[in-house]
UniProtKB/TrEMBL annotation:
Molecular-function annotations in GO: L-leucine binding; oxidoreductase activity, acting on peroxide as acceptor
Gene Ontology CC: nucleus
Protein name in the entry: SESN2 protein
Signal peptide: none
Lineage: Eukaryota, Metazoa, Chordata, Craniata, Vertebrata
GO biological process: cellular response to L-leucine; cellular response to leucine starvation; negative regulation of TORC1 signaling; positive regulation of macroautophagy; regulation of response to reactive oxygen species
Length: 141
């Protein structure tokens, strides 16, 4: 059974500590929706599919999968070097090096790479919260 932020995590944390629930939700939404509508030299690009793939890949790395998401998108949109970078930063941040950072998206701006970092760190935080809140839910029932 899916245990999602939108359906379960947010409502539980909002019951336990309403101010924090709202702040966390806003923080996740701001990072998830952040875009300049650019990719490298291209302008006017809808990056929502890419942002969703990055977010869901991070969740997948931590064992959270959603039945209503096509994980084929992850393999189509995220090249191997980007997946390696995401997994390294999310799981082994101490092993992140400048070489790892420069190996993915070589023609992209640093601001776009920073956005990837923001996405993966917030997705990682949300995944950790989902595990913790699910444990709290089980304890309460």
């Amino acid at each position: 059974q899916d245990y999602t932020w939108e359906d379960h995590g947010y409502s539980l944390i909002n019951r336990l500590y309403p101010e924090v629930g709202q702040l966390l939700d806003e923080k996740f939404q701001v990072v998830y929706n952040l875009t300049y509508h650019t990719m490298a030299t291209l302008r006017g690009v809808d990056t929502s599919v890419l942002r969703r793939a990055i977010w869901n890949y991070v969740h997948c790395v931590f064992g959270i999968r959603y039945d209503d998401y096509d994980y084929g998108e992850v393999n189509q949109l995220l090249e191997r070097s980007l997946k390696v970078y995401i997994k390294t930063v999310a799981c082994y941040p101490e092993k992140t090096t400048m070489r790892t950072y420069t190996q993915f998206w070589k023609h992209f701006k640093h601001s776009e790479k920073v956005h990837v970092n923001l996405l993966l760190l917030e997705a990682r935080m949300q995944a950790a919260l989902l595990y913790a809140l699910r444990a709290v839910t089980r304890y309460m029932t």
